[in-house]
């Protein structure tokens, strides 16, 4: 299990370039998990500290060459989320979201410094991690932070953006397009402001506003939960199966607020009977993660009802799936802390915490945990600066039911953009680029970034069905 998942538990527009052969990137042929085909892997040396060049580190880049030989010269650079996720962690997106774009453009996936194959900051988890208490988990996190001993203050968003420019130059590209998802949208905006001449167009999915404080997510999480409850109440089958859904959820939250619940149950993966502790923090974090994807959110009424009736196994199994208990989990927890403790936690004022957590099931556990963990990372606060205007064309995508970066965040981000379009998927959650007609719209926008994108087809994406019992979603 990666340590970032511990935290999650609680916790002028450029014209279309003419067709031309793009520069062939150097590197080696490689086969990586998540992609059946052979790709190109490139290593790019960058300064560890851009303020004092000298010592270097290596950034891993995965290049999926365009299908057509006469590829356009402006590739699509892909920036993953988190912070803590690597481009090589989301290789399935090549087919799921970027297959149409790749017809004529190289897709370049970058492992941000401290993630994936770019010197990932992480520790091997103890074998009993899924039976540890929250206090033990926090102690293990602190041990991990100390054992890595990395210069965490060198792992900022600004440094990652400068790495992207080094990658562009090393691969011989001129202007590039950017796709940034979730935190990757913050990184992409920062890069576009640092190197405006290098950016042709941006696609931002699950848009983080420049002034958004990542740990302050209570208001958005509660809104997504309320939407799920209302949708269940309006659907006859779901309402009949779970007529007291809100009361059951409130009862569970109240019970856990009084103290953790410990029970004996068979491990969902090994069938070994063992004690499992469900704390208020774990309960809230699991609910939050379930809300990320619409298909998962439609299982929440069943999970809540089962837990209320004393059958916690489905809920625990879902919690375990969120925080994959493997030593090579994809997200880097220490990198998450390095960024958030420097850039977000200093802006997490008592007033913001009070306003954000008021009436939200998410409460203050993440804030409390960060207050305990951030001093161990030993990073200096990064001062927030008002964002400069992005001149390049921007296509923003939002899921109406996103619990972390809902449409209002994109609306705020657009205030610092000269030419922004914003499309909302009404039946979408967090990250919508793979859904329905979205892959086609990405291609259309990148081909003609100054033209309006006709996004009416996104309204045709259906809502998933609710899960009513252990058999899974309704047919």
Automatic annotation (TrEMBL):
Alphabetic keyword roster: Hydrolase, Signal
Domain Peptidase S33 tripeptidyl aminopeptidase-like C-terminal: start-end pairs: 363-455
Limits of the AB hydrolase-1 domain: 75-209
GO MF annotation list: hydrolase activity
Lineage: superkingdom: Bacteria
Keyword set includes Hydrolase: yes
Signal sequence bounds: 1-23
Classification via Pfam families: Abhydrolase_1 (PF00561), Abhydrolase_4 (PF08386)
Similarity annotation: Belongs to the peptidase S33 family.
Protein name as it appears in the record: Alpha/beta hydrolase
């Amino acid at each position: 299990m990666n340590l970032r998942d511990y935290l999650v538990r609680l916790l002028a527009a450029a014209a279309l370039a003419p067709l031309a052969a793009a520069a062939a990137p150097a590197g080696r042929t490689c086969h990586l998990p998540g992609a059946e085909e052979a790709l190109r892997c490139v290593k790019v040396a960058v300064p560890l500290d851009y303020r004092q060049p000298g010592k270097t580190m290596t950034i891993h880049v995965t290049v999926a060459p365009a299908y057509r030989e006469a590829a356009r010269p402006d590739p699509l650079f892909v920036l993953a989320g988190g912070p803590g996720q690597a481009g090589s962690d989301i290789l399935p997106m090549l087919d799921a979201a970027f297959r149409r774009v790749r017809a004529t453009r190289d897709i370049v996936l970058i492992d941000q410094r401290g993630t994936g194959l770019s010197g990932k900051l992480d520790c091997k988890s103890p074998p009993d991690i899924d039976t540890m208490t929250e206090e033990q988990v926090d102690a293990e996190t602190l041990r991990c932070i100390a054992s890595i001993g990395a210069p965490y203050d060198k792992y900022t968003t600004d440094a990652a953006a400068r790495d992207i420019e080094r990658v562009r130059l090393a691969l011989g590209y001129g202007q590039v397009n950017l796709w940034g998802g979730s935190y990757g949208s913050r990184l992409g905006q920062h890069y576009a402001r640092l190197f405006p001449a290098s950016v042709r167009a941006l696609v931002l999915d699950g848009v983080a506003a420049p002034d958004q404080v990542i740990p302050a997510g209570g208001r958005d999480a509660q809104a997504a939960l309320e939407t799920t409850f209302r949708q269940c109440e309006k659907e006859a089958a779901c309402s009949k199966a779970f007529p007291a859904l809100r009361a059951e959820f409130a009862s569970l939250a109240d019970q856990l607020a009084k103290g953790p619940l410990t029970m004996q149950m068979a491990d969902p993966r090994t069938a070994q009977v063992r004690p499992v502790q469900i704390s208020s923090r774990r309960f809230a974090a699991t609910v939050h993660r379930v809300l990320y994807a619409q298909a998962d959110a439609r299982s929440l009424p069943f999970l809540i009802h089962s837990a209320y009736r004393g059958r916690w196994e489905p809920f625990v199994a879902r919690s375990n799936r969120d925080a994959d208990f493997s030593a090579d989990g994809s997200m880097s927890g220490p990198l998450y802390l390095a960024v958030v403790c420097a850039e977000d936690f200093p802006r997490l004022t008592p007033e913001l915490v009070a306003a954000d957590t008021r009436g939200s099931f998410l409460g203050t556990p993440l804030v409390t945990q960060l207050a305990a963990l951030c001093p161990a990372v030993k990073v200096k606060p990064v001062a927030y600066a008002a964002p400069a205007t992005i001149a390049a064309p921007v296509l923003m995508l939002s899921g109406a039911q996103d619990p972390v970066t809902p449409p209002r965040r994109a609306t705020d981000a657009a205030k610092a953009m000269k030419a922004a379009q914003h499309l909302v998927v009404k039946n979408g959650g967090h990250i919508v680029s793979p859904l329905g007609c979205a892959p086609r719209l990405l291609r259309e926008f990148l081909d003609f970034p100054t033209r309006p994108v006709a996004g009416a087809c996104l309204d045709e994406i259906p809502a998933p069905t609710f899960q009513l019992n252990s058999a899974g979603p309704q047919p």
